[in-house]
Write a sequence for this structure.
């Protein structure tokens, strides 16, 4: 059963949907007792997400005894709050962790309202980014687990800051991005060797652009955990949060899709994070879908992966 | 740009109502002293996430000006319960009827305006034709139900092209033929059924009189507004496939554009028509 709930954070009403396990769901004498999941809404999307993926996840988890809440972040969906006009502004503030504090406070209130003892924090795309920042900012012993769907660990260079007005340079950058997108769509029709040529050209153009604008190709020294081999556009604070959580042995499930970007050899941040084989990290790579996880049979596969992981990590009887 | 981040005077109530055994989701933007009540029927589900933010702000805009507004999710879609594939256009038409009645119950003496966007426009036009509502405002209503489903299939085709490995990706004709032959198509997280497709091809937009914005033979005002570039992301078809279609290409990708002038224009029409209707009553 679904139930509407709301919490007030920083003077804003944030709206959420709770998926309550049905009577007789396997919670009693089970590891899911007192455990709940909070799924943060993807950036600039209502809490059900594209293809109602999050709504389907909530139903499936509740059916299996895991109380699940899907939260609209400020300005998103039915929640109150500002939302910038420009998609890039929104991406930039998300990748800087702008929603972490409100999400942290919201999770505390949801825990109290629903009587949760332990919490799994989850998110998809921008929601996954916020999930890491939120989890790292938590001061009360949660999260007890995380599942993240295709978090973007790289900074979107075209995104402007919240105070930056759209200017001609931004317009030019956007047009360039649109052009790349269309070239990418054409590129998809080509055989792999030809696609590699496009990838190399793109990398060259990006590198030259950075040098021309005086940007460093590697941002060094933000913390000891970050490797100098990381691409220049790596979101270092975000990677630091993920590293910290892995170091704390928080069970984390990474789900990523094998899409054309990855096939064409772009850097794998998840592989980088899991290189030292953190004991409670799991990486599931899904074939036959894309970043949305609703193309092909992605929806079914991603839900199966989460259910299997939750059962494995938390499904043991308590005490 | 007006601050529509939260209501100033109205109260927002998000909840569920059980409809034919399914949890149906709604948000009522309740005005203190409503002069009108507006039912807002949204896009087909695949367009829903893109248009969500502007529609929430339109509802807030109206409610703060005395027009209580009800948004809802069709059963099987968004926050509403039920399996998508169990519902068809007829079910969603019944949803519109259900919510129109629910809204009318809130303040029976206050006029009801039927309003819709894309598929929602097509659906509420059917109710208006039956005599429901005192006025109708449509934003780019779908000409047929099949038009509303078309974008979903085009997105699937874009995915097929990008994931074709040796085989020839399916064409529009392949998908259409499959649905007509009784096959289900899994796309964008939903299962399109032959029943949905059949009803979608049969349902067509019929506007009162000669189709020009005016009043119908019962004296009720109605208006259709064609959305364009300034109204993206309310425009159907926003998303990846626009890049494939030069005719619909976005110059920018606004997330939450300043639609205040557009809202004002629509509100003025509503206000003037409802005043006129009251005078004639």
């Amino acid at each position: 059963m679904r139930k509407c709930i709301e919490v007030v954070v920083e003077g804003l009403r944030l709206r959420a949907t709770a998926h309550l396990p049905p009577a007789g769901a396997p919670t009693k004498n089970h590891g899911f007792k007192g455990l709940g999941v909070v799924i943060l809404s993807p950036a600039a999307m209502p809490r059900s997400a594209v293809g109602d993926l999050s709504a389907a996840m909530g139903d499936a988890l509740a059916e299996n005894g895991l109380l699940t809440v899907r939260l609209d972040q400020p300005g998103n969906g039915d929640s109150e709050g500002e939302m910038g006009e420009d998609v890039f502004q929104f991406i930039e503030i998300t990748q800087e962790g702008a929603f972490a504090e409100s999400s942290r406070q919201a999770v505390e209130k949801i825990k109290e309202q629903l009587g949760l003892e332990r919490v799994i924090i989850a998110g998809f795309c921008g929601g996954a980014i916020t999930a890491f920042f939120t989890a790292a900012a938590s001061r009360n012993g949660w999260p007890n687990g995380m599942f993240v769907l295709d978090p973007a660990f790289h900074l979107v260079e075209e995104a402007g800051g919240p105070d930056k007005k759209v200017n001609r340079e931004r317009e030019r950058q956007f047009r360039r991005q649109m052009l790349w997108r269309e070239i990418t769509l054409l590129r998809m029709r080509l055989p792999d060797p030809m696609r590699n040529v496009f990838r190399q050209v793109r990398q060259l153009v990006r590198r030259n652009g950075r040098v021309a604008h005086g940007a460093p190709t590697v941002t060094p020294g933000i913390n000891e955990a970050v490797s100098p081999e990381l691409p220049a556009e790596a979101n270092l604070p975000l990677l630091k949060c993920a590293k910290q959580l892995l170091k704390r042995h928080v069970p984390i499930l990474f789900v990523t899709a094998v899409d054309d970007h990855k096939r064409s050899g772009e850097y794998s941040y998840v592989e980088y994070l899991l290189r030292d084989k953190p004991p409670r990290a799991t990486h599931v790579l899904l074939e036959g879908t894309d970043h949305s996880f609703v193309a092909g049979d992605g929806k079914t596969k991603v839900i199966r992966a989460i259910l299997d992981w939750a059962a494995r990590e938390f499904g043991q009887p308590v005490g | 740009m007006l601050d529509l981040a939260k209501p100033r005077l109205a109260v927002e109530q998000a909840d569920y109502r059980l409809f034919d055994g399914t949890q149906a989701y709604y948000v009522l933007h309740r005005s203190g002293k409503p002069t009108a009540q507006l039912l807002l029927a949204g896009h087909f589900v695949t367009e829903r996430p893109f248009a969500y933010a502007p529609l929430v702000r339109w509802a807030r805009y109206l409610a703060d000006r005395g027009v209580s507004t009800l948004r809802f999710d069709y059963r099987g879609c968004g926050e509403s319960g039920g399996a998508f594939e169990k519902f068809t256009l007829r079910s969603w038409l019944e949803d519109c009827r259900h919510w129109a009645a629910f809204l009318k119950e809130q303040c029976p003496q206050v006029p009801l305006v039927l309003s819709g966007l894309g598929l929602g426009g097509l659906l509420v036009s059917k109710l208006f034709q039956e005599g429901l509502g005192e006025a109708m405002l449509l934003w780019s209503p779908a000409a047929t139900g099949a038009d509303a489903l078309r974008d979903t299939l085009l997105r699937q085709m874009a995915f097929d092209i990008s994931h074709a490995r040796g085989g020839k990706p399916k064409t529009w004709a392949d998908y259409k033929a499959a649905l007509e032959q009784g096959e289900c198509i899994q796309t964008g997280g939903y299962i399109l059924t032959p029943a949905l497709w059949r009803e979608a091809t049969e349902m067509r937009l019929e506007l009162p009189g000669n189709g020009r914005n005016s009043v119908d033979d019962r004296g009720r005002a109605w208006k259709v507004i064609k959305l364009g570039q300034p109204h993206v992301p309310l425009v159907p078809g926003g998303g990846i496939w626009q890049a494939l279609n030069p005719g619909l290409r976005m110059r920018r990708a606004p997330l939450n554009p300043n639609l205040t002038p557009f809202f004002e224009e629509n509100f003025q029409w509503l206000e003037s028509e409802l005043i006129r209707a009251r005078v004639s009553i």
Summary: Strands of chain B lie at 11-19, 22-30, 36-41, 67-72, 112-118, 135-141, 185-187, 190-192, 214-215, 221-225. The longest helix of chain B spans residues 260-280. The two ends of chain B are 36 Å apart (CA to CA). Chain B has a mean pLDDT of 88.
